[in-house]
Amino acid sequence: MRKIAMLAAFAAITGATAVHAQGTPAEHPRGPGRGGQGMMDSVLLKGITLTDGQKTQLGELRQAERAKMQAAGGAQQGRGDFQAIRDAREKGDTATANRLMAEQRTKMEARRDEQFAAIRGILTAEQQKQFDANVAEMKQHRMERAPGRGHKPSGV
Q1: Coil, helix or strand for 59?
Q2: How far apart, in whole angstroms, are the C-alpha atoms of residue 94 and residue 114?
Q3: C-alpha angle with apex 110: 93 to 52, nearest 5 degrees?
Q4: How far apart are CA 87 and CA 83, in angstroms?
Q5: How far is CA 19 from the centre of its chain?
Q6: Which of 7, 68, 111, 114 would you label with 79, given CA atoms 20 to 30 Å apart?
Q7: What are 62-88's pLDDT values in tens digits?
Q8: Exposed e or buried b for every residue in 104-127, given b needs 16+ CB within 10 A?
């Protein structure tokens, strides 16, 4: 009897978790097919209520970013960059590996700053204040998580 009660409790918890995780795209922080981008948006837009027009503009920004990434070689280009870093490490060339990692980090930070500026451009002045605070908080959190890695906060 005890096994049945435990099994029933487990099934109820598992079912509730699955239903909660399947929320509607607007409720789910990642949204359908957006990977980590939806998660970053939820952090950047915390405390900001977008109008329908702003939501449309944000969607258009994301589509344009995906198209730009695909045109530039997408994930294949990124894999090549990281493969060069791995190759340098395997050869024991830490100077080259460190240089390539710094270059990759600079590219990623520049792309992220472009994205932040584009999102900021669709916000009202009041929303921009909250957005700027969210960006600062996110960057501070990133610095705390990766001390001594040479991460320097980049401007908005």
Answers
A1: helix
A2: 30
A3: 145
A4: 6
A5: 24
A6: 114
A7: 999 888 878 776 555 556 678 888 998
A8: eeeeebeeeeebbebbeebbeeeb
Instruction: Report the length, in residues, of the chain.
Output: 156
Quote the distance between the C-alpha of residue 118 and its chain's center: 15
- How far is 85 from 29, CA to CA, in rounded Å? 32
CA distance to 18, 20, 21, per residue, from 11 (Å):
11, 14, 15
**What's the pLDDT tens digit per position in 101-142?**
999 889 888 989 999 999 999 999 999 999 999 999 988 888
Compute CA distances 111 → 2, 23, 108, whole Å. 56, 30, 5
**Which token pair is 125?**
């002045």
CA distance 75 to 66: 11
DSSP character at residue 156: -
What whole-number distance in Å separates Cα of residue 1 and Cα of residue 22?
Answer: 32
Q: Are 38 and 25 in contact (CB under 8 A)?
A: no
- Give this prediction's pTM: 0.61
Residue 69, C-beta contacts closer than 8 angstroms, at least 6 positions apart? 75
Structure tokens, 139: 């960057």
